[in-house]
Design brief:
Length: 343
């Protein structure tokens, strides 16, 4: 997998049959490398564009001259595709559809800038002075977070996990870390004296470094794990190392961490648990604790407050409690007046 990833980063058109046959597509994808997009972003762009070009090939459409109707037909095809990898749902999820459409829009923006075509079939019709209706309306769903009972079950199941995994779980919640941010931590990123860790800019989604605190419990796990880690490697570097025979002492991959969390969730009877659930829970707990949204955005490493709002939500129980505390007197007075009128 590493060899494949490095080949893809060196030449993003490799392993992408239809992109490699379209000079403009290869040019655009290579430009994303020059713009220092993350390897994951480049890989996602490549897969999405290759799939779209594959559709154009099957439908006999010249992608450089495709119309808005052609793009809409592609989106329609995505909504009825048979399920893959054992999934029962037909078609791609709304978030995936929006991602695919974003990739196509960015590709056509490049073609417009290069003078290959006059307008972007996915973009807005600025010439007419009004924005056209989006091909896909994004759905904003509240992220799932564990309940108190879920959390107790997760913690109980985690007691049987190796020390490394318990530390990863603790830091994932403590600092609301994304999966890659967690897996790419190095020993030198920690300041035990002040109980802080530094996320290097190159490891974050937004390419912005940030310094975050971690708890006393995580500090104890960190100290214990360092002793265990010395049996695998005495040099500084990646913090979380594999103990498997096949990959011994190599950095743990994000895929391995996802599998670990998936297995943990199933053991705990919480099948919805993902690596991002710890981040959701931490940010929501900060909101419950009264943190300002700007403070939460800074802690989370969000560029936009809109991103923070997607993570911050309160349960119906929280809302009921807040309603009872803040609206009880006003509500009772209004209801008393209403009953007086009706009597």
């Amino acid at each position: 997998m590493r060899a494949r990833g490095s080949r893809m980063e060196a030449d993003p058109s490799l392993l992408l049959t239809y992109v490699s046959n379209q000079p403009r597509a290869t040019e655009w994808l290579t430009l994303q490398v020059a713009l220092r997009r993350t390897p994951n972003t480049i890989a996602a762009y490549g897969r999405g564009l290759d799939d779209y070009l594959s559709f154009c090939s099957r439908a006999g459409i010249d992608p450089e001259r495709a119309s808005r109707g052609d793009v809409a037909t592609y989106v329609q095809e995505l909504t009825v595709r048979p399920p893959l990898r054992g999934r029962s749902a037909v078609g791609l999820a709304n978030a995936t559809l929006c991602q695919r459409l974003t990739i196509i829009r960015l590709f056509y923006e490049h073609l417009v800038e290069e003078g290959v075509r006059p307008v972007n079939p996915v973009g807005h019709d600025s010439a007419r002075g009004a924005a056209r209706r989006a091909i896909i309306q994004p759905q904003r769903r509240l992220p799932w977070i564990p309940s108190e009972d879920d959390w107790r079950a997760i913690v109980s199941a985690a007691r049987d996990e190796p020390l490394r995994n318990r530390l990863m779980l603790a830091l994932a919640y403590d600092a609301a870390l994304r999966r890659e941010e967690l897996c790419l931590l190095e020993t030198g990123d920690f300041d035990p004296a002040h109980r802080t860790l530094t996320l290097r800019a190159e490891t974050t989604k937004t390419k912005r470094a940030r310094c975050l605190p971690y708890s006393a419990a995580a500090a104890d796990l960190f100290a214990a794990y360092l002793s265990e880690r010395r049996a695998l490697a005495r040099t500084r570097g990646p913090l979380f190392l594999s103990t498997s025979t096949r990959n011994r002492a190599t950095p743990i991959s994000k895929w391995s961490w996802s599998k670990t969390v998936r297995a943990l969730g199933l053991r705990a009877g919480v099948p919805k648990l993902t690596t991002h659930s710890f981040r959701h829970l931490c940010l929501t707990d900060l909101a419950r604790a009264g943190w300002d949204i700007h403070e939460i955005a800074s802690f989370a490493g969000h560029r936009s407050l809109q991103s923070t709002l997607l993570y911050i939500h309160v349960s119906a129980r929280d809302l009921a409690g807040k309603f009872a505390r803040g609206m009880a007197a006003i509500h009772d007075e209004r209801m008393a007046l209403l009953l007086d009128r009706l009597s």
